[in-house]
Amino acid sequence: MARNRYPGYCYCCGEYVPAGYGHFERRWGKHGNKWQIKCVKCASGRIVRDTDKEVQRVRKSQGGGKNEKKITKKSREAQ
């Protein structure tokens, strides 16, 4: 599976998934949501680290990715 280039929320667990930390899938059935993100933990049970080769590749393609905030489910609900 290919890694996500854009951040979003996992459609399985609802957690925020930064760019490179999940997979994208084309899913039909929800209006307006053709492409959805699934975190690596839900997809394969692995824990992805910043040193992962695919995470580094996505960050490099986006110009570094140093300014990206990590948002949890609790902080998303507070917004």
Short description:
The protein has helices at residues 40-44, 53-61, 73-78, and strands at 8-9, 16-17, 22-26, 35-39.
Describe what you observe in this structure:
The protein is α+β, with helices and mostly antiparallel strands. Helices cover 25% and strands 18% of the residues. The protein has 3 helices and 4 strands. The protein has helices spanning 40-44, 53-61, 73-78; strands at residues 8-9, 16-17, 22-26, 35-39. The strands form 2 sheets. It has a two-stranded antiparallel ribbon with strand order 1-2. The longest helix is centred in the C-terminal third of the chain and has 9 residues, at 53-61. The termini are far apart.
What are the key terms here?
79 residues; alpha+beta; two-stranded antiparallel ribbon; two-stranded antiparallel sheet; globular
